[in-house]
Amino acid sequence: MKYTESHEWIENGQENIVRIGVTQYAQKELGDIVYVELPTTGRDINAGQELAVLESTKAAADVYSPATGTIVEVNSKLTDHPELINQSPEDSGWIVKIKVSNPAELDLLMDRQGYDQFLNGK
Amino acid sequence: MKTAFEKTQSKQRAYTIPFSYETLSFPFPPELQRQSPLMLPEISEIDLTRHFANLAERNMGIDTNFYPLGSCTMKLNPRVNEVAAALPGFARTHPLAPDETVQGNLQIIDELIGFLCKLCGMTAGTLTPNAGAQGEFTGIHMIAAYHRQKGDQDRTEILIPDNAHGTNPATAAMAGFKTITIPTNAQGDMNLDDLRKAVSKRTAGLMLTNPNTLGLFSPVISEICKIVHDVGGFLYYDGANLNSIMNIARPGDMGFDVMHINLHKTFSTPHGGGGPGSGPVLCNEILKPFLPVPQVYKDKSGYHVKWDEPNSIGQVAPFHGNFGIYLRAYLYAKLHGNFGLRKISEVAVLNANYLKSKMGQFFAIPFPQTCMHEFVVQADRFLDKGVRAADIAKRMLDYGVHAPTVYFPLIIKECMLIEPTESESKATLDHFIQIIEAIVNEINADPFNVFNAPQSTPVSRLDEVRAAKQPILKHTLVQPF
Amino acid sequence: MDFISNKSPQIAAMLSEIGLDGIDDLFSSIPSDLRIRGPETDDGLSEYEGLRLMEELAVKNTFSSYENYLGAGAYEHHVPALVSSITSKSEFLTSYTPYQAEASQGMLQAIFEFQSAICALTGMDVANASVYDGASACAEAILMAFRHHKNRNKVLIGQSLNPRYGAVIKTYLQCLDYNIVTIPFTKDGGVDLDFIRKEADHTTAAILLQNPNYFGVLDDVRASFEIAKKESIICIVCADPIVYGICPSAKELLADIAVGDCQPLGLPLEFGGPYAGYMACRQDLVRQLPGRIAGETVDTHGERGFVLTLQAREQHIRREKATSNICTNQALASLASLVTILWYGKEGMKELAMANYQRAAYLKSRLQKINGILISHGRTTFNEFVAEFKMPLDKVIKHFQKNGIQPGVSLNNNSLLIAVTEVKSLQQLDRYVKVAQEVA
Question: For a FRET experiment, which of A68, B4, B38, C39 has its CA 20 to 30 Å from that of A30?
């Protein structure tokens, strides 16, 4: 797994398809998530572009794509159960799957240790 | 408590229709008739009266409770304003009435604009925007229109400090601008170097509140305005905090080009549970041509309305805006005069600093310098006990005080923004400090009551998550079939 | 006068406790070149003088001494006496936006009931807590449609929309890259359906029609929307809420969004404001709905309560990504409308609408018989209609005014837009006819 400074995680899979979600830290900061605005599949996305929006009662947070590629799948369970992100942010609370066009982009991201250090610096 | 939709009783009624004995029977075409049943409740006059009286009992207001809601200026809503606004000579005037039949109204509009312009160092203005946010909308559109007229297509950015009220960036977006955020420094002011880096030929303008949302007056405000003017941008003044500087300093002198005033804040028009408000816009000579219509002008024969102006941005309201609201502000201004308005600002600022001087023992004060009419405290020292600003706010309700603004501005952690206003007496302020002390003692001893607050309001803490996840946004009558 | 509580004894004590010498020290952060000298003498007024001043100004308005037949978006209706006694209650009048829900259950429930009442009238699924007025409601509805159809940039707007509403819409869309196409109306006052057939395409995000339209004509809204739906165009109907007492609901008309102004329900003319715009829509558009929305929930004991909900759409959270910059709603005004709607209730709204229709129809039919007056549109009208005069309009108006009547709003082709509501007795209407005969 790799991590971004905006608290997204990205997990490599087969055939350059990666899974993306937000970290434990992010879900705690947001509080109870009440709604997830999911993107449509088939859409092309650039690194740094807005991928999804997570809404709590007091805040709305953008989820940014860590990589460039095409959206191949969204976690539709989140429509009726947005709380999955709070309960299991780094597993069953995943948000989208992207087929990345440039896997080398992921090498620039932080690993777990780097992310933890980043959090401690906060 | 039941809603009105749950109180329906068949055939009960409160209404009467005038002249119902005059039978007229023009046929109403069947193809134009409503087919679906009209599912409104049937309620008698006494039940309706009681229903709303009971609802009122479940609500706090300035009349009943101290309401130190920062950024909102919850001062007394004087009843004399209400008496004046209800005079039938005002209430029954149609907005399209011939000018000669509404000279009183037009005089009020003309005089109030003139008065506010002098107060703020501006040249011209409009009373038609219906609220502060719509005032911002008007002012930003005027700035956009100016650049458009000059053929300056590149002015695509509006600069906004990170402590700004959410309406500022929202307004900029509605006018098609990109927002560039300027950070606040550790002293609570705008960092001039950050500003210099952010301005460019793409800068259409800067939106600023001064004193800002932290309650602090920027000593470098003239410099800020110069930096933006030097690149050809405009300065927009968000007048939400005008209550602190009336007849002490003027936005026009600081360098602002256009501004709005929140009459429901500074000029005591009633908040009404969330509106209606009124957001007059004032500006200098440069932006005057772009003011919205309709406009009132005076000549030898009296006051007149014009609906066309070649460079106007057009209408922001269908008629003259919230006349009934700024009518109250007019009387408020007349009763106080410039002398009284200055006193308001002096005591508003004194009251705030008095409270602030006492709060230091309970909360962290991020900005120790003299504040203006409001100030920020940080309630984060109780996080180790799990107590947050939200909890403290709820516990205040149990002590009969409306909580201050919490979690705004966003840049201060566990923020509480406190604005007592000039209305409040020293005894009320001292009592508030006692309440804070009591709550802090509770937190230190056993925060149980704070976590479970409020307990003495008609309902205890409400589940906002459930309201957002399973929205129930109306009641309906059950079908009688 | 002022309403400042603290006087010299308290001020002195407070300054001393803070450790300041004088009031001026409080303003030391303001650069001296910006400080102005305050006025030396008290130029305020006593309460009595203030009220006398307002009374004198009110008397300078002579309008209320005339019988009023002006409409065009602001109508003279009976305001039930109950309304002011409720809206003047301290707890409603002097409270703020219900951000601390537990202390604001009264206002929140009132908003919830207002939303419910608007849904009952319009037949739509959800409504918000109100916006400034009918004009901004139209503009915000169009912006909703553009957000829904992100790749479309055209909106069709009926020419028979209130021109002042049209002007506000134009201002709202000014800086954005959208294309307004105007749907003409035909001779009989109805919308040109062929034009809609031609123009309603996949680049069109929304269609907006007013019903009854600016001329009081009950229009072919459903037929228009049927055409628009083929391209999934968002259908917006702007209506005087009273009309829903007898006319098809917005839902029956196939509208996606219903908007309008609540002024006819419980709000005095007050020279143009405060009024209250209503917005109601289909369930699936609710996240695009701007403004405040109250929702039902429970407290820690399971008791019913109300909160502002779906706030993540709003400016204080989304900021530049908010659905609108709107912050204030028209709370107290919407409360007045709610009280009025409930005062009339199910049967009363029907009778109120019918009374409006009947009285306007009566005047229209009598004027129709006068030589020199032509009723401009053949279609059914609600409580307003257009009459064209042979005599020059300024002479017509002057004559009516001499007889204590403001006969209507002037339109371009020597016509008057005449509004007749339930408050006009037959005696008054007969007098209008008599005066009209004198200038026919």
Answer: A68
